[in-house]
Specification:
This protein is an alpha+beta fold and 192 residues long. It is built from four helices and ten strands, in the order βαββαβββββββαα.
Length: 192
């Protein structure tokens, strides 16, 4: 998901309502900053209508576990360290849903899933061009492990990451933990 930040513009009347229903538009700082968040195609259409802003990534930490399966995504910096979220959901229905929003030009995501048979994870680097809104995705590492491997090691999944992805080990562990967290309602990998 991308985000388009436009300063010094105010939408009025029908114009505002058209974009309100299609995008997540918010006025910040007394109406001087408009943030349009949503599907990349819709945000690009909005940017063509209102030039002069900048694009950035908007990625959610989300997920959790149901009875025997789970999946989760955590967000980290390109150095693998936790980031400070732009927004944390603290009220409402949060079980296995979105928990924290992270924004920036360059982010990394760690996706993990678990089932009765295996545990999987992948590490991706995301980079957004601030002018065009194009997002480049590079997969650093992807792996799948049978559950029997983790059972033999006392319940802990032991694995080796390649050198370029070694700094993401805490993020991978957090994503696997979040994918096993029953009805997860909170972020697992944030800088407090």
């Amino acid at each position: 998901m991308v985000e388009y930040v436009l300063k010094g513009t105010r939408l009025r009347g029908e114009e505002y309502h058209k974009w309100w229903w299609e995008l997540d538009t918010k006025y910040l700082a007394g109406g001087e900053v408009l943030v349009a968040r949503g599907d990349q195609e819709k945000v690009l259409e909005f940017a063509r209508s209102y030039p002069g802003g900048r694009f950035r990534l908007a990625v959610w930490e989300e997920g959790g576990s149901m009875t025997m399966t789970g999946q989760a995504q955590v967000v980290a910096g390109l150095d693998g360290k936790p980031l400070r979220p732009a927004f944390v959901i603290r009220k409402g229905e949060r079980a296995c849903s979105r928990h924290a929003l992270f924004t920036g030009r360059r982010l990394a995501t760690v996706w993990a899933s678990r089932s009765r048979d295996s545990k999987d994870f992948s590490i991706k680097k995301l980079e957004c061009d601030p002018v065009t809104g194009n997002v480049e995705v590079a997969v650093l590492h992807s792996a799948s492990y049978p559950v029997a491997v983790s059972c033999r090691s006392g319940g802990r999944l032991e694995f080796d990451l390649p050198p370029e992805a070694a700094c993401f080990l805490p993020a991978v562990q957090a994503a696997l933990q979040k994918a096993a967290c029953y009805h997860c309602r909170r972020p697992h990998y944030i800088c407090s």
